[in-house]
Amino acid sequence: MTLLAIDWAGVGVKAGQFILSFSILVVLHELGHFIPARLFKCRVEKFYLFFNPWFSLWKKKVGETEYGIGWVPFGGFVKISGMIDESMDKEQMKQPPQPYEFRAKKAWQRLIIMLGGVIVNVVLAVIIFIGIKWVWGEEKLPMKNLSYGVYTDSIAKTIGFKDGDKLVSMDGKPIENFGRLEADIVFKEIKTVGVERDGQPVNITIPAGFSNKIKGRKLVTLFFARSLAVVDTVTKEAIFFSDTRLQKGDRVVAINNHPITYLDEFAPVRDKYIGTVADFKILRGSDTLHSKMLLNKRALVDKNAVSMGFASPYKLLGTVTTKYTLAEAIPRGWNSCWETLDNYVSGLGRLFKGKDKPSESLGSVISIGNTFPSEWDWERFWTLTGIFSIILAFMNVLPIPALDGGHALFTLYEMVTGRKPSDKFMEYAQMVGMVLLLGLMAYALGLDFWRIFTKG
């Protein structure tokens, strides 16, 4: 991996969005435990954003509770007196139960305290998705607008797709929204895709295990909307060696006599002439003109350093944005939230059925942080925050010791049978759960480092 190729500003923006997003999720999740604990008169000893082994970045005691920020960004915690949790405070558990302790409360109260964080994350996710639909609406690129078809990633070409294909159907059902293609192929396990190629219908079979190949790559986009190479911006740094300068609206049709019809054909031709003065043949209205521009040598590291930018296919082909009133946004956001969870659960199902490989599907905070864009985008930020909120709720409700769901399961067992699991049993269960979770986190983190150093 070449250090010069790292966009440190972009990395900083990604990190900033990740920290803000997870701070919101963790603080609200822990508040979901904190508030009912205080309502039921439990003593809360600590309330922390992130974990704090050995030391804290910041802490302050207010009343009976120490508030703080840890330095390990894997979550957060509230330490409730008389509860066997990640703090493993065995000495406290040896003492007789006190009225202010978690273990002294009724089972139904303890259940509410344990599930409070999950409930808050679910409510937060629903509110976020509703807010997104209300503020930004839904932007779609209708398939009928892709008049030039698509250009495809190399992995799509291996199963028969070609540049210029017009995607028509999936498993016989018409494709309406271009933006849903990859998600449907991966999560709905689409078997066939119908395309129009040179005016003729062609059916392409999606082979079993194809989604593994998609998930195992950094670039998971199979299809890109194809458009003409139309200039959108020319920066002040652009150096021209002709009276004719490129300007917004120009259509590039050749570089040094190498013809270019579509935007996806520009980069391969451009890369041949990096560091030279290249002749751009352009169409400006009804005129054919030539402009000579230096293709900056810095573009060997930063491929955007050619002092120009093209109009996005979405802009040229025309998207359709549907705006919603608050009343209309509520059901749309509700459905989007649960569709997100359904996709995630489907992905986990594929993992446990052996259809996906853990080494290709798992990721740590590095993978999560990398999902944020390198430029601050509030719509994308809140979309990812909503996604992670509903995923966090689902993961925490799983009946695994050390997670909220594990504690809730033992409490439900007590409510049904009338027998409370012993403190010793709870200690062992907590330890087993912590070992499993820490092992999984270490494995995921190791996978991310392996990907970084082996794939750059």
UniProtKB/TrEMBL annotation:
Its EC number is 3.4.24.-. This is Zinc metalloprotease. SUPFAM superfamilies: PDZ domain-like. The chain crosses the membrane at residues 111-136, 381-403, 428-450. InterPro entries: PDZ_sf, Pept_M50_Zn, Peptidase_M50. Its main location: membrane. It is a multi-pass membrane protein. Its cofactor is Zn(2+). Belongs to the peptidase M50B family. Pfam families: Peptidase_M50. Keywords: Hydrolase, Membrane, Metal-binding, Metalloprotease, Protease, Transmembrane, Transmembrane helix, Zinc. It is an enzyme of class 3 (hydrolase). It comes from Sediminibacterium roseum. PANTHER family: MEMBRANE METALLOPROTEASE ARASP2, CHLOROPLASTIC-RELATED, REGULATOR OF SIGMA-E PROTEASE RSEP. Residues 18-439 form the Peptidase M50 domain. It is found in: Membrane. GO terms for molecular function: metallopeptidase activity. Gene3D superfamilies: 2.30.42.10.
